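DM between two lab members

TW: hey, do you still have the Response regulator transcription factor entry open?
JB: yeah, one sec
JB: this one, 143 aa:
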Amino acid sequence: MNSSPSQQALRVFLVEDTIPIRQRMAARFGAIEGVEIVGEAEESGAALTGIDATRADVVVLDLRLTGGTGMELLHDLEHSTSRVITIVLTNHSSAGFRQACLAAGAQYFFDKTGEFDLACNTIKRIAHERCARGLNYTGAHHV
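TW: and the structure you got?
JB:
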């Protein structure tokens, strides 16, 4: 974790079925000041349980998961009691996927190949806004 004891870190949960990509995500996002990676999963059932158990603030998810899809997870999160910011980070980045994810409740949508840095910058901005406000930041902008 890269936050000082006096501030609460932005708790990020990663849902990605490819281990090297998940490791890259954990390394890059976890290096952001004020961000803590609180859990990881490769399928939606374990992700939903982990998100609830860790009280994650942000979930970064892929659309293709082991034994399910990110769309199913988005639907489950939309209907759960957990209030999380959802960021889709995927290679399935056509306009149709983007529109479907945003309609299903994702606040952000990024192409894994060309927009990884933009996803990092978005998490950084959310963490900094949350720290500046001194409370749980739940506002989001559609991208």
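TW: got it. The chain has one domain: 10-133. The beta strands are 10-15, 35-41, 58-61, 64-65, 68-69, 85-90, 108-111.
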